[in-house]
Design goal:
By secondary structure, the chain is an alpha+beta fold. The chain contains five helices and nine strands; from the N terminus they run H-E-E-E-E-H-E-E-H-H-H-E-E-E. A hairpin with a 5-residue loop joins strand 8 (194-200) and strand 9. This is Pyridoxine/pyridoxamine 5'-phosphate oxidase.
Protein backbone atom coordinates (compact mmCIF):
# COMPACT_ATOMS: atom_id res chain seq x y z
CA UNK A 1 0.00 0.00 0.00
CA UNK A 2 1.29 3.43 -0.95
CA UNK A 3 0.80 6.28 1.49
CA UNK A 4 -0.30 8.59 -1.30
CA UNK A 5 -3.17 6.21 -2.05
CA UNK A 6 -4.66 6.62 1.44
CA UNK A 7 -7.31 9.29 1.03
CA UNK A 8 -10.99 9.96 1.56
CA UNK A 9 -13.51 12.62 0.81
CA UNK A 10 -14.98 14.79 3.55
CA UNK A 11 -18.72 14.80 2.98
CA UNK A 12 -20.47 14.87 6.37
CA UNK A 13 -21.34 18.55 6.58
CA UNK A 14 -20.50 22.08 5.64
CA UNK A 15 -19.97 25.17 7.78
CA UNK A 16 -21.35 28.63 6.99
CA UNK A 17 -21.06 31.96 8.76
CA UNK A 18 -24.76 31.77 9.61
CA UNK A 19 -24.18 28.58 11.61
CA UNK A 20 -21.58 30.21 13.85
CA UNK A 21 -22.46 32.10 17.03
CA UNK A 22 -20.89 35.39 18.11
CA UNK A 23 -18.71 33.90 20.85
CA UNK A 24 -16.02 31.36 19.89
CA UNK A 25 -16.23 29.93 23.42
CA UNK A 26 -19.92 29.20 22.93
CA UNK A 27 -19.16 27.76 19.50
CA UNK A 28 -16.45 25.55 20.99
CA UNK A 29 -18.86 24.46 23.71
CA UNK A 30 -21.38 23.33 21.09
CA UNK A 31 -18.81 21.40 19.06
CA UNK A 32 -17.24 19.90 22.18
CA UNK A 33 -20.60 18.60 23.40
CA UNK A 34 -21.22 17.06 19.98
CA UNK A 35 -17.81 15.38 20.09
CA UNK A 36 -18.55 13.97 23.55
CA UNK A 37 -22.02 12.79 22.52
CA UNK A 38 -20.55 11.10 19.42
CA UNK A 39 -18.27 9.03 21.72
CA UNK A 40 -15.33 9.55 19.41
CA UNK A 41 -12.78 8.16 21.86
CA UNK A 42 -12.12 7.35 25.50
CA UNK A 43 -10.47 10.78 25.84
CA UNK A 44 -12.74 13.42 24.29
CA UNK A 45 -10.82 16.10 26.22
CA UNK A 46 -7.49 15.19 24.59
CA UNK A 47 -5.78 18.13 22.89
CA UNK A 48 -2.36 18.68 21.40
CA UNK A 49 -0.38 21.43 23.15
CA UNK A 50 2.36 23.07 21.06
CA UNK A 51 5.17 25.04 22.69
CA UNK A 52 8.51 26.45 21.52
CA UNK A 53 11.77 26.16 23.48
CA UNK A 54 14.59 28.68 23.91
CA UNK A 55 16.28 27.45 20.70
CA UNK A 56 13.14 27.92 18.65
CA UNK A 57 12.36 24.19 18.49
CA UNK A 58 8.61 23.47 18.55
CA UNK A 59 7.28 20.42 20.37
CA UNK A 60 3.85 18.91 20.88
CA UNK A 61 2.21 16.55 23.33
CA UNK A 62 -1.29 15.47 24.27
CA UNK A 63 -2.73 17.01 27.44
CA UNK A 64 -6.28 16.86 28.79
CA UNK A 65 -8.65 19.81 28.87
CA UNK A 66 -10.00 20.17 32.42
CA UNK A 67 -12.05 23.35 32.18
CA UNK A 68 -12.93 26.12 29.76
CA UNK A 69 -14.87 29.35 29.94
CA UNK A 70 -14.59 32.93 28.68
CA UNK A 71 -11.27 33.27 30.52
CA UNK A 72 -9.59 30.40 28.67
CA UNK A 73 -8.75 26.71 28.45
CA UNK A 74 -7.24 24.90 31.45
CA UNK A 75 -4.84 21.96 31.77
CA UNK A 76 -2.60 20.65 34.57
CA UNK A 77 0.98 19.39 34.60
CA UNK A 78 4.30 19.16 36.41
CA UNK A 79 5.69 22.71 36.63
CA UNK A 80 9.23 21.42 36.04
CA UNK A 81 8.34 19.53 32.86
CA UNK A 82 9.59 20.24 29.35
CA UNK A 83 6.35 22.03 28.47
CA UNK A 84 6.45 24.18 31.62
CA UNK A 85 10.03 25.24 30.90
CA UNK A 86 9.04 26.17 27.35
CA UNK A 87 6.10 28.23 28.63
CA UNK A 88 8.34 30.02 31.15
CA UNK A 89 10.48 31.26 28.25
CA UNK A 90 7.69 31.84 25.74
CA UNK A 91 4.08 31.68 26.89
CA UNK A 92 2.62 31.81 23.36
CA UNK A 93 1.13 28.36 22.75
CA UNK A 94 -1.35 26.56 20.53
CA UNK A 95 -3.99 23.94 21.31
CA UNK A 96 -5.38 21.56 18.69
CA UNK A 97 -8.46 19.35 18.84
CA UNK A 98 -8.79 16.78 16.05
CA UNK A 99 -12.29 15.32 15.90
CA UNK A 100 -11.67 13.43 12.67
CA UNK A 101 -14.80 11.19 12.71
CA UNK A 102 -16.80 14.44 12.63
CA UNK A 103 -14.39 15.85 10.02
CA UNK A 104 -13.65 18.76 12.35
CA UNK A 105 -10.67 20.53 13.88
CA UNK A 106 -10.37 23.40 16.33
CA UNK A 107 -7.13 25.35 16.74
CA UNK A 108 -6.66 27.77 19.63
CA UNK A 109 -3.87 30.35 19.66
CA UNK A 110 -3.13 32.14 22.90
CA UNK A 111 -0.95 32.85 25.89
CA UNK A 112 -0.57 30.47 28.82
CA UNK A 113 -0.71 31.84 32.35
CA UNK A 114 -0.05 29.83 35.50
CA UNK A 115 -3.05 29.08 37.69
CA UNK A 116 -3.13 30.14 41.31
CA UNK A 117 -2.19 27.64 44.02
CA UNK A 118 -5.80 27.72 45.20
CA UNK A 119 -7.10 26.71 41.75
CA UNK A 120 -4.50 23.96 41.41
CA UNK A 121 -5.24 22.66 44.90
CA UNK A 122 -8.99 22.45 44.25
CA UNK A 123 -8.37 20.30 41.20
CA UNK A 124 -5.57 18.23 42.78
CA UNK A 125 -7.70 17.05 45.70
CA UNK A 126 -10.43 15.98 43.25
CA UNK A 127 -8.06 13.55 41.47
CA UNK A 128 -7.97 9.83 42.29
CA UNK A 129 -5.58 9.14 45.18
CA UNK A 130 -3.14 7.15 43.04
CA UNK A 131 -3.01 9.99 40.51
CA UNK A 132 -2.08 12.33 43.35
CA UNK A 133 0.69 9.92 44.40
CA UNK A 134 1.90 9.68 40.80
CA UNK A 135 2.26 13.48 40.71
CA UNK A 136 4.63 13.24 43.70
CA UNK A 137 6.50 10.31 42.13
CA UNK A 138 7.33 11.50 38.64
CA UNK A 139 10.02 14.08 37.89
CA UNK A 140 8.40 14.66 34.52
CA UNK A 141 10.68 14.80 31.45
CA UNK A 142 13.74 13.74 33.50
CA UNK A 143 15.70 10.62 32.52
CA UNK A 144 15.26 7.37 34.46
CA UNK A 145 17.10 4.09 34.13
CA UNK A 146 14.16 1.70 34.07
CA UNK A 147 10.44 1.23 34.59
CA UNK A 148 11.24 -0.71 37.75
CA UNK A 149 12.85 2.35 39.36
CA UNK A 150 9.74 4.39 38.63
CA UNK A 151 7.50 1.72 40.17
CA UNK A 152 9.73 1.52 43.24
CA UNK A 153 9.50 5.30 43.68
CA UNK A 154 5.70 5.06 43.35
CA UNK A 155 5.56 2.37 46.04
CA UNK A 156 7.69 4.51 48.35
CA UNK A 157 5.30 7.42 47.90
CA UNK A 158 2.31 5.16 48.58
CA UNK A 159 3.87 4.22 51.91
CA UNK A 160 4.71 7.84 52.69
CA UNK A 161 1.14 8.96 52.03
CA UNK A 162 -0.59 5.87 53.41
CA UNK A 163 -2.88 7.96 55.61
CA UNK A 164 -4.56 11.34 55.49
CA UNK A 165 -4.83 13.87 52.69
CA UNK A 166 -2.06 14.19 50.14
CA UNK A 167 -0.77 17.77 49.86
CA UNK A 168 -0.29 19.61 46.60
CA UNK A 169 3.34 19.26 45.41
CA UNK A 170 5.08 22.61 45.04
CA UNK A 171 6.14 21.53 41.53
CA UNK A 172 2.64 20.70 40.27
CA UNK A 173 -0.04 23.04 38.98
CA UNK A 174 -1.93 24.21 35.95
CA UNK A 175 -2.17 26.71 33.14
CA UNK A 176 -4.95 28.68 31.53
CA UNK A 177 -4.53 29.38 27.84
CA UNK A 178 -6.10 32.79 27.17
CA UNK A 179 -7.17 32.72 23.52
CA UNK A 180 -6.46 35.44 21.01
CA UNK A 181 -7.53 33.45 17.91
CA UNK A 182 -9.73 30.36 17.54
CA UNK A 183 -10.17 28.55 14.22
CA UNK A 184 -13.00 26.15 13.37
CA UNK A 185 -12.37 23.75 10.46
CA UNK A 186 -14.99 21.57 8.79
CA UNK A 187 -13.92 19.13 6.10
CA UNK A 188 -15.57 19.43 2.66
CA UNK A 189 -15.39 17.56 -0.61
CA UNK A 190 -12.58 18.11 -3.11
CA UNK A 191 -10.48 19.55 -0.26
CA UNK A 192 -12.47 22.79 -0.40
CA UNK A 193 -12.78 22.83 3.39
CA UNK A 194 -14.66 25.44 5.40
CA UNK A 195 -12.43 27.45 7.75
CA UNK A 196 -13.48 30.30 10.00
CA UNK A 197 -11.28 32.15 12.47
CA UNK A 198 -12.32 34.34 15.40
CA UNK A 199 -9.81 37.09 16.24
CA UNK A 200 -9.99 38.89 19.57
CA UNK A 201 -10.19 42.67 19.30
CA UNK A 202 -8.75 45.34 21.60
CA UNK A 203 -12.15 45.95 23.17
CA UNK A 204 -12.60 42.26 24.00
CA UNK A 205 -15.03 41.52 21.17
CA UNK A 206 -14.38 38.91 18.47
CA UNK A 207 -14.10 39.48 14.71
CA UNK A 208 -14.95 36.55 12.44
CA UNK A 209 -13.30 35.86 9.09
CA UNK A 210 -13.52 33.02 6.56
CA UNK A 211 -10.16 31.55 5.48
CA UNK A 212 -9.36 29.83 2.23
CA UNK A 213 -8.72 26.09 2.61
Amino acid sequence: MKLEDIRREYTLAGLSREQLVASPIDQFDAWFKQAVDAKLSADPTAMSLATVDSEGQPSQRIVLLKNFDDKGFVFYTNLESHKAKDIAGNNKVSLHFAWTPLERQVIIYGEAEKLSVAEATRYFISRPRESQIAAWTSHQSQKIGSRKLLEQAFDQMKRKFSEGEIPLPSFWGGYRVKPVKIEFWQGRGSRLHDRFIYIKQADGSWALERLQP
